[in-house]
Protein 1
Amino acid sequence: MEKIVILTGAGISAESGLSTFRDEGGLWAQHRIEDVATPEGFARDPDLVQDFYNARRVQAAQVQPNAAHQALARLQSEWPSEVVIVTQNVDSLHEAGGAENVIHMHGRLDGALCAACGHRWAAPPEMAVGEPCPACAEPTARPDVVWFGEMPYHMEEIYSHLSSASVFAAIGTSGQVYPAAAFVHEAQAAGAHTIEINLEPTMGTSGFDDRLVGKATETVPQWVNRLLQQKD
Ligand code: NAD
Ligand code: ZN
């Protein structure tokens, strides 16, 4: 049976109340990306960066998964073959919605990483600058998120899934951040049927075979229902 690979972005969590990159008034709008989401920004002003992620961690802990997260979890449990969810999101709403084995290519807000030795542990609600690493005691704790200029996680595993996908869907992602923006081409090269599900058509839309435009909480359950009906 057919393997489905799904890439999600900030748009799938928007209706849960987490702002996307470009949302006006959102956390991201109040800061420059270079200041809060690059290794150079962290080196320059670690307090600002920790504060930014502390605020996002608090916000993410307060919100609930929405109908789109839940529909993908349902697809995973009812589809007769593998359904792989790859997310660029650092929240845990897929998991809260019941999804399993979610691949977090940009890390997670609830994780801490030691910049010195690579040790990982569960992040406290508030991380402080200079906090010692539990493994090597260096004061080099940072959020376990992938910043611009850093290598996304699990790329080998993701490419292997893309090369064996029959269906590839990109949901709530603007397709402007590489390498995720190129996944559609990888999947197409492997012969997958590709679909974009987004609030508005994106620049990368021409690369997709199919498109569903609208709010994720409406379009994703529709798409999942359609797939599960086809299966029967
Ligand atoms: P993006 O902000 O660049 O794009 C979001 C896309 O979602 C846009 O194309 C927008 O039209 C669409 N969208 C907005 N509301 C929607 C809705 N209700 N239904 C369907 N689509 C909707 O986000 P991106 O492509 O994920 O790339 C941004 C980067 O920012 C990622 O690296 C990610 O790690 C990070 N980020 C993560 C979160 C999170 O974890 N929740 C939030 C903001 C940014
Ligand atoms: Zn360490």
Protein 2
Amino acid sequence: MNAPFFPNPTPVAYEGPESKNPLAFRYYDKNRVVLGKTMQEHMRFAVCYWHSFTWPGGDPFGGETFERPWMHGSDPMELARQKADVAFDLFKILDVPFYTFHDRDIAPEGSSLAESNRNVRAIAEIFARKQEETGLKLLWGTANLFSNRRFMAGAATNPDPDVFAYAAGQVKNALDVTRELGGENYVLWGGREGYETLLNTNLKSEIEQAGRFLSMVVDYKHRTGFKGAILIEPKPKEPTKHQYDFDVQTVYGFLKAFGLEKEVQVNIEQNHAILAGHSFEHELAMASALGIFGSVDLNRGDDRLGWDTDQFGMNVAELTLAMLEIIKAGGFTTGGFNFDAKIRRQSLDPDDLIVAHVGSMDAVARALLNAEAAIKDGTVDSFVKDRYAGWRTPFGQSILKGEKTLEDMAAYVEGGDINPQPKSGRQEYLETVLNRFL
Ligand code: XUL
Ligand code: CO
């Protein structure tokens, strides 16, 4: 690669809402304080390696459109080093604090697991140097346990224990590298942890295998002193028809069954939420309610397409609802907004990569400002608080504490001649109130 991929690798600046420059921020002003934290602290933006640097722009009907220079050449390790240079240029241009990767995004697969792991560690050494020079940090690492054909019937949930072992060996290396790079989380997305037909599947065995695998990961995390959070990323389908990590609530049930609900949190993705028939904010609220909110893969799906389109999140209204739930959950601790999003296959220019991230960062920043206004106004919050006031009375509390029986309830209603009157849920009023802040 002779000429630099990004001709002008200088950081994008904040120019304010009036700016028409697509290579400037209009709302994301990283040092601006909102609700007690800077925008940068709220968002903890991360760029993902896979969509931005390894995806060639193909679809089921056609191949590569992007023709990235680092994807064509005879020496795969040399190409991986070129890719690292371009990636860190983009991170610098976007002025994000974090990045994320799969092991196979950053380094080529070798002829054995040992060789593949060595390749990953060699590139991670380059990352360590670049992190040192730039101050950039790793939000999370993960292992790709779905692309290679050995994983076609699953990784942890494969019928063959040797495949389970292979996957475990790959995760061990990815966890080691993530820990050494100071990663703040480690993600497990069960790409092939599911099945196509019960005719060839022992479902009970596969679920036990998945539980064992996750327990091994948690055990290794503690023994090696990894301080980050372990995150599972729910998704209901694609690539498998029935995926075990269907949605947040299903993952919670799975964690409970294996005693891991205090050990593992979730990485919620907008597109996965809508594939599960939920809204983005539903999944965020559920994770918060269950105490397992970890991080977010930020993108958007298409309501009319049943697959993972991974488009850049630009819908300010939807992001405002999401931001409200994230703030109610107490905000990110180890997590952040990871751009698990890809530009469309016709977006060929280097600038398209920059504009996509900048536009989505701005949409989230605007959503944060909207959420701040709605929270400061307080109408919606106080409506919900009043609606549940009865549960905060001694009577409501005694039910929740398990101090009352079914007979107590019957005696209370019959004895006191209780006849509860329905009250309006006022949905349209609340939607109108929220629209004032969009
Ligand atoms: C797949 C997906 C993955 C995970 C990491 O839909 O979202 O990229 O985020 O493996
Ligand atoms: Co994702």
Protein 3
Amino acid sequence: MTKRILLIGHPVGHSVSPAFQQAALDYYALDVRYEAMDVDGSSLSRTVAGLRDPDVIGANVTVPYKQAVMAFIDEFDDEALLIGAVNTIENREGTLVGYNTDAQGFLKALKEESGFDPKDNNVLVLGAGGAARAVVVALAGAGASSLVVANRTLERAAALVDSIQSTLPSAEAIELKSDSLGLVAANCHLIVNCTSMGMSGGEGQGETPMMSDLIPSGALVCDLVYNPRETPLMHETAKAGAQVLGGLSMLVYQGAAAFGLWTDKEAPVKVMFEAAEKALAARQLIGS
Ligand code: NAP
């Protein structure tokens, strides 16, 4: 019987996960199909219940259901509980177990692609949505010495900082504005863009959360946005002479961690990167 792994979200047509997950499954010649499912909110509980079927191995969950899906899952790993969101589900003989692989995907991308260890470093996180939550939990756990969260909506940044007070009491929330950013950015070793500014097709398309004059030349700037491959923030970072890391590597490494959970096999990361880059290039050709 052909088994299935689903991607649950809305919309899902733009996602490159089906391309690189299927490439990984095919690499091991597994009789498994990875299928994107565009789910509307009213059918979320029914769709998740369907994951208990014996032919389903598990699922990925993407925007906007990473939090909502938790109401329909039986068990969670510690990181998913800490982040408060699930991006991977495993069907263990009818019991649904929720994981969040975004934090480890982010840390792995930092280490493998940039050789960066957050321990004892000053970090500035831009944004306070779901991706920022995973990044902040990852950085606090990895021993960052100071952490500032800057967001357009200050209350959201304050709530995120509150939630990690026990791990990182010195964390601070500020507004995402040039004058406030200028004060903290100069001492930062790592800047992570977790806003959707710069993302193709979104409300912040073509925009950057920081200009080059605020970016220290010795910093590493990591942009979680992966479409387009060269974001406005990456352009500003290059102008500042700082090191840059795009979002595709985190995407592939979080997917690689999910692949390991579903299959108990080592993810063929090189194959996944090639498939993701090819799929993304095709999306950019058709302008999505
Ligand atoms: P989200 O929960 O909707 O959060 C969006 C964040 O962006 C919020 O902080 C929001 O600020 C801010 N924002 C949106 N438009 C803005 C604008 N025009 N000006 C200033 N701030 C703006 O989304 P998410 O799930 O965290 O995802 C954020 C980005 O990360 C997306 O581009 C997503 O594709 C990317 N991402 C990448 C990976 C990866 O593996 N590379 C993984 C997850 C997410 P407010 O709170 O003020 O609204």
